[in-house]
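Reading a protein record of the kind used here takes only a little practice. The record below shows the convention in full:
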Amino acid sequence: MKLNCIITDDEPIALEIVEGYVKMLPELNLVARCTNAVETFTALRSHHVDLLFIDIQMPEISGLDVIRSLQKVPLIIFTTAYPSFAIDGFDLDAVDYLLKPISLERFLKSIEKVYSRIEKNQHALPAVIRHTRADRKFFFIKSDAGLIRIDYDQILYIEGLENYIKIVSENKTVVTLHTMKAIEKVLPAENFLRIHRSYIVNMNKVESVKDYLFKIKNINLQTGKSYRKSIQAILKLKYSIITG
């Protein structure tokens, strides 16, 4: 099984090293090499991609935020010089985490993990049942009341409450035992944006953004300080902003 790959890294030497390793393996097909998030988004739209090697620390938007913003996420291998980011990487269901400088031996072990992941089909999300059609309009989520249908276009925002989440919609509010990480996986990235460790907003419902407050139905949701830089970049990339 041949895998289409993209490599994203703002460090030329690191980019060349991973590219060299990829080209050594006939089962890997390099379709693009990128130096920033914008190039990565473009490449993902232009190609069918099975595997993405991506640096975590990059200008404007981190590799973590790139992955969080994707609707369709390929298999991910994070590359970085900072071991402290490993937990964040695995929280996003990354196949592996490569610490720079990356050796060939360690790279090959990552590729073995990729094929193991494919064989074991570990992409399924327990407890959340997705509507899998390309034009899906809703999903079901398990709660004490059974499986509750949630329509995407009715969601206002989602709030994380320790081990629970609260889904606030136009017509109902559902509190259920799930994580923000789990719910993010079923939300269309083009419409939903994480602005805080405890808040995900439906951008179609946002009335205004001022002083890092997202206003929805007279409710002001505060952005997290660690999210602000990436939010600004994502808003510029994905939404039309008229400033004058």
